[in-house]
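The pair is set out directly below:
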Amino acid sequence: MPHVNPAIYVEADSSYELEYVEVIHRHHKRTPYASNTFPREGYSWDCDDEGLFLGGKPIDPCGNLSASTYWRVDISPSNPLAPTGFNGTCQFPQITREGLDDSHQHGIDLRDVYGGILGFLPDSCDRNLVSYRVTNNVITSQVASMVIAGMYPERAGQNSPLLIQPASIDSLEPLYSCPAASTLFESYGPGPSSPDWIEHLTASADLYGRLDALSGVDPTSDDWHKSWDHYFDNLSSRLCHQKPLPCNINNPEDCVSMEEAEKVFRLGEYEYSFIYRDSPQSLGASVGSYGIWVAELAQNLRCAMGDESTSPSEPSEKVRYRHNIAHDGSISRLLSILQVDRMVWPGMGAEIVFELYRKDGCYFLRVLWGGQVMTSSNPSLARLDLVPVANILDYFDGLVGIGARKIPKLCQR
């Protein structure tokens, strides 16, 4: 999806001075999740053109040097078992070579705008001024390694810390427990308790039947049939990598047509719009499940303005650029909380940017979605183009509380 880049970026009025930037975006192109692959796939998927480096080495203090090790899939001729899903040398999921290249270009584009055009980013990657954060899903770290090298070429091949929260309380993915939000999502979205959702699935039963018969997916599988998410990921990941749509392994002439794939994509778009924007319960569900990250954003804005009175820990006022690499569920919840006027399923690299400006001693916020100023359907937000930051903070605080103090109670309801 579009993101900030020199070709589309529109500078704010020169009377406004940029003080702080926070970026959050979805990871880039990947292979499908293993759970979203068919029981048997008709062709292999290889990733021999990249390495997923895993290892460790002593730091602070330094010790023995380590080898740069990466995974290489090995299929033993003595192992009689066949893997489910795709054969080949990829992990499912992993960021593909195309995704790595897109990640690198994303970093270049951000550097060219916030470094080249605006002169805002520091010339070198000073960790006191610039930070990168990832989720507990390793694919976001794969993206980060390329984004950083794109933004700061001198960091290529160098050690670069990535901030990460413990899995049990990770607010970026999110992974923290919020039973009330989960129950609310299930009450109107994927699950057995929503008549509207069941009606939606019933209306698309013929397409399910067609794809189940072709793919070998069990028609009674709840995971595959509670929403169109699995088929969406399976088909879209192929097309993103110029791979053919799947065929029946027992009848190679019987293939998913582009028309059928587009039906799946339309159904998936409808589902995401309904889950995160159209349903009256969507805001409450998103606030509960993503409110902690929103509170962290609010605190970062306050620190950038020099307001440390609400900070529960040591201030980080020096940080002027924060970069978060997340997932479609992260971006969707944030769009829901911001009440974006037109919801879409966030594609690979989908990006939201928060720019904090100062003018005449006052602070203003601009929010970019897909590289353009975001418009909210909430009248208190409306067009998020240099609005007084107090308006945004009041809105966030009203939903989640300063320091997310409302979230524990909201999640227990």
The two ends are 36 Å apart (CA to CA). The first helix runs from residue 97 to 117.
